[in-house]
Amino acid sequence: VVVRDLRGCFLLPGFVDTHVHYPQTAVTDAYGGGQLMEWLEHCIFPAEAELADPGYAEAIAAAFVARRVACGTTAAMVFGSAFPVAQRALYEAHEAAGLRVVSGRGIQTVGPDSAAPLITTEAEALALVREEIDTWHDPAGLRQVAIVPRFSLSVTRQTLAALGELYAEVADGGVYVHSHLNENNRAGDGEIATVKAMYEVDSYLDTYDGRFLPGSRVGGAGLLGRRTIMAHAVHCTDAELDRMAATGTSIAHCPTSQLFLGSGTMPWRRTVAAGVNVALGTDVGAGDEWLLSRVANDCYKVHLSAPGDDAVAVHPAELLFAATLAGARALDQEDRFGNLDAGKEADFLVIDPAAYAPLALTLEQASTPDQQLFALLMGLREPAIREVYVAGRRVGPGQAASEA
Ligand code: GUN
Ligand code: ZN
User: With CB atoms counted within 10 Å of each terminal CB, which end of the chain scores lower, N or C?
Assistant: First the structure.
């Protein structure tokens, strides 16, 4: 092997983004004039409809992969496009770039007028998910497929029942589930209130847990498990957190997105104490940062600013964990990547503080390892990400992909 002297640099595990929307690549910082429901209807559904155009989808897939490489996001759970042609572009761009990806087309069988281009019949939705699994799912490789109902308001009881049956059939093959949970708690017409009214359930999580009949009665197989990631989980009951912990379901925690959409702050202490795995997600495009350490930065600030006893200074090691190993755990691939343990597949970043002077300056003032890690995570910006490796292979930044 070639031994390289990288003194002055840091090695970090590659970042794992557990919630990022590929079809929203071009619409970060979109002004919807309100919170989640307004923003989806005015900005997001129309923008996602544009990916029906194969040429545009290819351009967006290329831009998406380029942002991932620049930000050192070596693995990700990618919320996909409704259009198979756009999913093809996504998978092919990832294959060419050498990045890990788990993705699935966003399933919508009901919705407002602006979502019409994204909606299919239930039969078509099921056929398309099966086809995506058959075509792209590669359990031992870098690319896997997820079943992705957009959220409970984009599907029906019948769709959830059918997806539960499908999941029971394909779960052993390592297929994933991804969706949104408990994001917006505006009284009356917010997301959570609408889910509870529409399904007549006690809790939002029940709809994903097979309990989607009135009174939270069981209506079919559930979608929770070790390969299930629920994004947001800002406003969970204790029972919902306990159920996620018991089933091994992970939370994609997206504080940058919560700030952007006014969704509130996930109670860090209570959520972590419940024993549920909490990993970070950018939630691009409601999150307007691609760099996962910037999400860790917001994570630190929002939880320190939480009211009363909820306020907590998240330790730098926990921030690093949430941005890396917790994500690998959420993807149920902790044995393959997530830290620098011997025997893993070597997903890592070379950080060069000299390439970004403000970072070099603050690191000089950090005297303990904890302070150093904190300054590194809080102050990291893209110019300092010098090299990115996935499974021991250099994937960028820059053009030359070469063996390490
Ligand atoms: N809930 C349903 N769809 C979305 C989405 O695209 N982004 C976010 N943040 N929440 C959602
Ligand atoms: Zn999202």
Answer: N
Q: What's the pLDDT at 399? A: 54
Ligand 1 pocket check for 233: Cβ under 6 Å: no
DSSP helix/strand/coil, 26 = coil
Q: Token pair of 213, please?
A: 């009949």
Tokens of 364: 């000089």
Q: Is the CB of 150 within 6 Å of ligand 1?
A: yes
3-state SS class at 145: strand
Can you tell me the distance from the alpha carbon of 303 to that of 131, in angstroms, rounded to the nearest whole number? 42
Q: Which helix (H) or strand (E) holds 163?
A: helix 157-170
What pairs with residue 251 in β-bridges?
Answer: 230, 278
| Spacing of C-alpha 1 from chain mean position | 35
Tokens of 317: 């090691």
Tokens of 331: 């993807």
Closest CA to 396 of 43, 65, 61: 65
Using a 10 angstrom Cβ sphere, with 0-12 exposed, 13-18 middle and 19 or more buried, the burial of residue 331 is buried
Condensed to tens digits (0 to 9), the pLDDT of residues 59-69 reads 999 999 999 99
Q: Does 183 contact ligand 1 (Cβ within 6 A)?
A: yes
Crossing angle for the helix pair 357-365 and 369-379, nearest 10 degrees? 160
Q: pLDDT for 252-301, tens place per residue? A: 999 999 999 999 999 999 999 999 999 999 999 999 999 999 999 999 99
Ligand 1 pocket test, candidate residues 17, 20, 21, 195, most atoms within 8 A of CB: 21
Least distant ligand from the CA of 27: 1
SS3 readout for 67-114: HHHHHCEEEEEEECCCCHHHHHHHHHHHHHHCCCEEEECEECCCCCHH
Q: Give ion ligand 2 contacts, CB < 5 A.
A: 231, 283
Q: Which atom of ligand 1 is nearest to the CA of 183?
A: 10
Nearest Cα neighbor of 143 from 130, 132, 127 is 132
Please name which ligand lies nearest the alpha carbon of 261: 1
Are 177 and 147 in contact by the 8 Å Cβ rule? The answer is: yes
Global pTM value: 0.98
Site to substitute for ligand 1 among 41, 152, 183, 184, most atoms within 8 A of C-beta: 183
Nearest-CA residue for ligand 1 atom 9 is 286
Q: What whole-number distance in Å separates Cα of residue 89 and Cα of residue 277?
A: 31
Nearest ligand (C-alpha, residue 40): 1
